[in-house]
Design a protein that fits this description.
heterotrimer; A mainly alpha (194); B alpha/beta (867); C mainly alpha (187); A: 194 residues; mainly alpha; C: two-stranded antiparallel sheet; 5 helices
Chain lengths: 194, 867, 187
């Protein structure tokens, strides 16, 4: 049990996908303009990541490996991710039309969010079992959400702040992201290297 | 709990509110021994609305003599209180006067010229109020126009209607620097105030009355202590000096420890608070019967020789107050005048601003005393503002969101709980005018709300209208369907119906024959109309074949050659207009011009036509047809050349009309051409329907013609014309007409001679008229041009007309007024028609003249615009 | 052998996923776009038709269907920003203006010069919100509070007696100017 909690904590904070592994930067910069949008994106990504992580584990372990078709891994993972994203999109369109509009192009772009494929492939690399896969995917998503919402909140403040002209817009966002990344590096100290 | 709270309050426990500041007081400056009454001045400006709530309606008019204390307005609304005449005199103006508002935007104000007698109306004291019903006392308070004198101006009687009140708080805090009006009032009129409080206590029946006074006013505390000596229920409470302890919510918190929930009045907590000044006004209203027409105003500042408090009548211009106090501005233009205190007050736009019910202080400071605000610097996040905020808001956050126009977020941070006390701006080391940002944001939010409401309303109305139109359409369709069915049924059930149709057709034929017959007889007008038709058709054909340009040139040429100097001016006008046309860029504009020019000509025709008014009417109907036809054609083709032509044509027609009768027929011919064109262009006309109506009309026409008597000639003519016009659309009918008209033409010449004579006589007399008109029109047009050049002037004009366009809260009243006006106009219009009918030529003429002038002027103005 | 099994595996997977998506497409079918109502709420409801649609609702529908968001002159810049926010689209300046000249739109209302009105009722028919009162051959007048300032009555008037006048600012509608009152005055 402790193992799982540690795994979750490590994925969320220490090995944060965005600020430490630098995966999924596209939505991180793109959908962080407003907190509401960021929250919606976080929820959608969490759903997709967890589901994709688990499904790709199933496919890898029960179809590809027995049949010795591991070379099809990337292809089939992308297939899985695409389907999950598509499904999420339909669900959102039906239930949350405003959010659907707000997310716009970033919703289908979850498909190409490298964090999603990254999680699936890392699961294989680290030889996680089913539960570990789910936790790993979920943790990655939580880490992503945390950072995204924090960043969106900061950017919202920045929008009203008196920033020097040359720093306005993306520039200050980049600086902020860098500082956040530095801060997250500090979480490395949570693990005792031995 | 409540009991123990009561005990606590009685035992002298005080609470504190968060934040607050201690600005320098500067109160001693205006403290004197007694409060003088301001001498009368010549003019008083009484704004109609001096309180929070709704407008009242005027009950006086300009020229009325009023007496002191006489109500100037009335209203049945609960949130409205009247205003009263401050002295006796005459009302010399009811109009806009600079308001005692931060904006200085003029507001509706009654100006009273004092007669110096200061005669009062008969006062009706109710000093035995204990025996009166509460309703009558509350009514008396409302009638006396009493509002909160502390600053906000909330109608007092509304507060007094509250039920289940435990605590009545009397606010004698007066926390703003400089102001000593309440202090002086308490020192000198403590007994009266206590009497006023008794009235309030009688109405509210509170468990406890607490009179709160800041500890920097020991004399006032002493005076009230003395006055309340034998009142068990009354407590005089000394509270620590801290700005803004005088705010209602803050005071409640200090005295009871309770916080007033957002969006609910203190009465919900069982608390009512009143200002000491209000208590005095209540005393006056109940014990002496005098309405609220004067109040204590502090006049202070280092630019005054004798800073003091005075009893000033409501409506006294500030200038008068200042002069009384020995006003000596360093620089009259740069002099700043502040109304209210330095924390929450505002700069006056003019010294003519009147004292209102909520004016407690006028400051005339030196530059050093209240220097202009230093430039705003960047926020350094020191959070001093948050510490100072008495409402525990986050001023810095509010500032950011307000300045970034993120009003929804500002609202989330409870922007509307800000009491605009100015404490945050006072402590701000970066000199950011925070309160201004909040005020602006609040105004924007309120505006947006109003607009949202309006949009909702507009949407509803639009939908209702769409629904109505849909229903009307359906009803029409249903009616048509039913009619068709009935006809069908009739046809089936009654075989003779078919015969009837045949009979109808026969009648149409018969009518045509009769018409011809009639024409060959000597019915003059009919002959004429037939002749016209003939020419019409001929012209129509010719015009259709030749280019119109050519024809028009021909016309104007002949015109120029044939006619004398009178005509020249007309022709020139025509050419001018033609030029205007060329210049006109938009088809729509061209169209409008055309219509105007035509209207002009119609007028000209009408004036010339002195003999038979009815004839003129017929013509104007024809002209209307031309107008419509032109409008349609232009709308569709927007061919500018053609527009020119028509214009030229029409003008020539007009010119010719005025001089001789021969071209008169031409003009009618033109009309016919236009009509024919219109017909051709009118696509929307359902063919079947048209046919039906035409058949009907023709029948009527036939009958009319048969019955033709000399007195109904004009009628017959117009009906026949209309019928024929419609018939033209049908090629078959056309042929018939042609035969007929050829026939007519032969007969036409003789009777026309007579008419020609007549007409030329009239024309001679009217020619000079026309010229004068043309000149007048040109003069007008010039004036217009100047005006349009001069923007400032234009703006003035707009403003002038603008009085009508101010928004009132009462939609219904407006609508009613509008309808009434419309009715009045209709009556007038009817009258005019009657006049015309009874051949009152002079009136008719002058009417027409005005119209012509207006039309010409407009045409010119349009041209200017086009250029 | 590997080739065939790979093909079969991928084929089967694709088939399963395809059927899932197909089922979802039916199950979560979007009937009416609630977005239309939301856009309609933002639009100023002047019903002026300047966008090229006969009213605000049709334009809202058109925006939801992908039309440009910058066709509403009465709403002005503010409305475009709001719609841009709602739909997640890029803000574009009002059609026919440069991005720089976003002058504050002054709200106007129609005003009939009553002396010149001939009572033709044309404006009454043109008014989308029934804000003009009058009868045939009688003077007409505008109910100022109901007028949306849409301009539609100006063109039909045959005698040009309708002016669009800016609404007067009152103490109620006045917005504080930042430099109106120096609050911090006491030193």
């Amino acid at each position: 049990m402790t193992e799982y909690i540690l795994l979750l904590l490590a994925t969320v904070l220490v090995n944060n996908f965005v600020l430490v592994k630098f995966l999924g930067l596209c939505p991180f910069m793109g959908v962080s303009g407003r907190v509401e949008t960021a929250v919606g994106m976080s929820l959608a990504t969490t759903f997709v990541l967890t589901l994709a992580s688990f499904t790709s584990y199933l496919i890898n372990n029960y179809i590809l490996q027995p049949l010795d078709l591991t070379f099809l891994r990337t292809l089939s993972f992308i297939l899985v991710i695409a389907v999950v994203v598509q499904f999420t999109e339909m669900l959102l369109h039906k239930t949350q039309p405003t959010l659907y509009r707000l997310l716009g192009i970033f919703l289908p772009l979850i498909t190409t969010n490298c964090a999603v494929l990254g999680v699936a492939l890392l699961n294989v690399n680290e030889q996680h079992n089913a539960i570990e896969s789910i936790i790993y995917g979920f943790g990655a998503a939580i880490g992503f959400s945390l950072v995204l919402i924090l960043f969106a909140a900061i950017r919202e403040r920045l929008a009203a702040a008196d920033i020097p002209k040359s720093f306005q817009g993306t520039a200050i966002a980049m600086v902020t992201a860098g500082l956040m990344s530095l801060a997250f590096m500090g979480f490395t100290g949570l693990i005792k290297l031995s | 709990m409540a009991h123990s709270l009561l005990e606590k309050i009685k035992s002298g426990v005080l609470w504190d509110f968060p934040g607050g500041v201690h600005p320098p007081e500067r109160k001693s400056m205006s403290i004197t021994d007694s409060v003088d009454t301001l001498p009368l001045t010549d003019y008083y400006y009484v704004p109609l609305k001096q309180h929070i709530g709704v407008y009242s309606e005027l009950r006086v008019k300009v020229g009325d003599k009023v007496k002191k204390g006489q109500a100037l307005t009335f209203s049945n609304h609960n949130m409205a209180v009247p205003v009263h005449a401050p002295t006796s005199g005459e009302i010399i103006e009811i109009g806009e006067h600079v308001s005692s508002h931060a904006s200085g935007i003029p507001e509706k104000t009654v100006t009273i010229k004092s007669d110096g007698l200061d005669e009062s109306i008969e006062l009706q004291p109710q000093s035995h109020f204990h025996t009166q019903s509460k309703e009558s006392i509350i009514k008396a308070l409302q009638e006396a126009g009493i509002t909160g004198l502390g600053g906000a101006g909330f109608p007092t009687h509304v507060k007094q209607q509250a039920q289940d009140i435990e605590y009545l708080l009397i606010n004698g805090v007066e926390c703003e620097p400089y102001i000593t009006a309440d202090d002086m009032l308490m020192r000198n009129y403590a007994d009266e105030i206590v009497h006023g409080i008794e009235v309030l206590a009688h109405l509210l029946e509170p468990k406890l009355v607490v009179i709160a006074i800041e500890d920097n006013k020991p004399e006032a505390i002493a005076a009230l202590d003395e006055a309340c000596k034998d009142k068990q229920q009354f407590i005089v409470r000394k509270i620590p000096t801290k700005y803004p302890a005088g705010g209602e919510k803050q005071l409640i918190q200090v005295l009871t420890g309770k916080q007033v929930p957002k969006g609910s009045p203190p009465a919900a907590l069982g608390i009512v608070s009143q200002n000491v000044g209000t208590c005095y006004a209540i005393y006056k209203a109940i014990y002496t019967g005098e309405p609220l027409i004067e109040r204590i105003v502090t006049i202070t500042g280092e630019n005054l020789d004798k800073p003091q408090n005075v009893w000033a009548r409501i409506g006294t211009p500030v200038e008068h107050l200042l002069n009384t106090a020995g006003y000596h501005p360093e620089d009259i233009n740069a002099q700043k005048l502040v109304m209210g205190g330095p924390m929450m007050g505002f700069n006056l736009h003019s010294a003519q601003v009147p004292v209102t019910k909520s004016t407690n202080c006028i400051i005339a400071p030196t530059q050093q005393e209240l220097p202009p605000a230093p430039p705003e610097k960047a926020c350094i996040r020191c959070s001093d503002c948050a510490d100072a905020c008495p409402a525990s808001l986050l001023p810095q956050q509010l500032y950011w969101h307000s300045s970034a126009k993120e009003y929804d977020k500002a609202q989330d941070l409870n922007l509307f709980d800000c009491i605009e006390c100015g404490a945050c701006a006072f402590v701000c080391p970066s000199d950011i005018p925070l309160v201004q940002y909040y005020r602006q944001a609040k105004a924007e939010i309120r505006q947006a709300e109003v607009e949202q409401e309006k949009a909702e309303q507009a949407k509803k109305r639009f939908e209702a209208r769409a629904e109505r139109l849909e229903k009307e359409k359906e009803a029409r369709l249903a009616k048509h369907k039913k009619a068709a069915e009935n006809r069908k049924k009739a046809m089936q059930s009654d075989p003779s119906a078919q015969d009837k149709v045949a009979a109808a057709l026969a009648r149409v034929q018969a009518k045509k024959a009769e018409q011809t017959e009639n024409n060959t007889d000597s019915a003059q007008s009919t002959v004429k109309s037939k002749a016209e038709q003939a020419i019409e058709l001929a012209k129509a054909k010719r015009l259709a074949k030749q280019g119109e340009t050519k024809t028009s040139e021909e016309f104007s040429n002949t015109n120029d050659n044939e006619n004398a100097s009178d005509n020249k001016s007309k022709a020139q006008a025509a050419i001018e207009r033609a030029k205007a046309k060329r210049l006109a860029k938009q088809a729509a504009q061209a169209q409008a011009e055309n219509t105007e020019a035509d209207a002009n000509i119609t007028g000209a025709q009408n004036t010339t036509d002195a003999q038979s008014d009815t004839k003129a009417d017929t013509k104007s109907v024809a002209k209307a047809a031309i107008e419509r036809a032109k409008a349609k054609r232009l709308a569709k083709q927007a061919a500018q050349t053609q527009a020119e032509n028509t214009e030229a044509d029409a003008n020539t027609t007009g010119a010719q009309n005025t001089t001789d009768a021969q071209p008169d027929t031409k003009s009618v011919a033109q009309a016919a051409i236009e009509r024919a064109k219109a017909k051709r262009l009118a696509k929307q006309n359902a063919q079947a329907q048209a046919e039906n109506t035409e058949a009907d009309a023709n029948t009527t026409g036939a009958q009319n013609t048969t019955d033709a008597q000399s007195d109904t000639k004009a009628d017959t003519k117009s009906v026949a014309k209309a019928a024929i016009e419609r018939a033209k659309a049908k090629p078959l009918a056309k042929e018939a007409q042609q035969i007929q008209t050829e026939h007519d033409e032969a007969n036409a010449s003789e009777p026309k001679l007579e008419e020609n004579n007549d007409k030329s006589l009239q024309a001679a007399s009217s020619a000079s008229d026309t010229k004068a008109k043309a000149q007048a029109a040109i003069a007008k047009a010039k004036a217009r041009r100047q005006q349009s050049d001069d923007n400032a002037e234009m703006n003035n004009a707009t403003q002038a007309t603008h009085e009508h366009v101010d928004i009132s809260s009462d939609n219904k009243a407006k609508a009613r007024a509008a309808i009434e006006r419309a009715k009045a106009r209709r009556q007038q219009a009817e009258q005019q028609t009657n006049e015309a009918a009874s051949v009152e030529e002079n009136d008719h003429d002058s009417e027409q003249k005005v119209r012509i002038k207006a039309a010409i002027a407009k045409a010119k103005a349009k041209r200017e615009q086009g250029q | 052998m590997t080739l065939i099994s790979a093909l079969i595996v991928l084929g089967v997977l694709a088939l399963i996923f395809g059927s899932i998506l197909g089922y979802a497409a039916i199950k979560y079918k979007v009937d009416a776009d609630p977005l239309v109502d939301q856009i309609d709420e933002i639009l100023p409801q002047t019903q002026c038709g300047q966008c090229g649609y006969p009213g605000c609702k049709p334009y809202a529908q058109a925006i939801a269907d992908g039309d440009d968001i910058n066709k509403c002159p009465p709403g002005g810049d503010n409305t475009i920003h709001k719609i841009a926010d709602l739909t997640g689209r890029e803000y574009t300046p009002l059609a026919g203006t440069e991005s720089d000249d976003v002058a504050e739109e002054v709200k106007k209302v129609a005003y009939i010069r009553e002396d010149e009105c001939i009572g033709c009722t044309k404006c009454i028919q043109a008014c989308p919100v029934d804000a003009i009162v009058g009868a045939s051959k009688a003077m007409h007048t505008v109910i100022t509070d109901e007028c949306t300032g849409c301009d539609l009555c100006v063109d039909p008037c045959p005698v040009d007696c309708i002016d669009m006048l800016p609404l007067a600012q009152t103490t109620q509608s006045w917005k504080w100017q930042l430099d109106a009152i120096p609050v911090k005055q006491v030193h």
